[in-house]
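Fold this sequence, please.
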Amino acid sequence: MARLLQPSTLILEDVDLIAEERTHQTPGCNVLLFELLNQMDGLADDADILFLLTTNRPDILEPALAARPGRIDQAIEIPLPDRECRQRLFDLYAQGLTLHVEQLGQMIDQTQGVSATFIREVLRKAALFAADEQSGEIVVEDRHLEEALKELALEGGELTRRLLGASRAF
């Protein structure tokens, strides 16, 4: 399909699900990997197709993906958000909410080492806690953010932290 629609971009999100290193795969489960490698190799020089592969697990990718020149030309690592970025993420995900928060700087510091998804979920949960308490306009306060962080980071357990991109317990 990408060949018919070129110029085109083919995005394979979580490519590690099909391109895990062959020594880790169950025999017979690497049909998709071989097809991906064949398609990436089988493009003519004049093909105008960009493959964009994403993964959270580059350590388990099949080495053959990068072994042949032209398959992967560039790798870009997107790190966890720094303090300034976490501030912007709180601002972004708080749009549409009424915040009466005095300790936002402390919350930003406490969320060091988390993903953008984790910050979004903290604000979503805080809004739900505020909605449970109030009728009318929902106002998110410090205690709602603290309760949301506690639920996600402590009570949610290790699996919740990993799924939401928190590298540590709080």
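Residues 116-133 form the longest helix (18 residues). The first strand starts at residue 8 and ends at 12.
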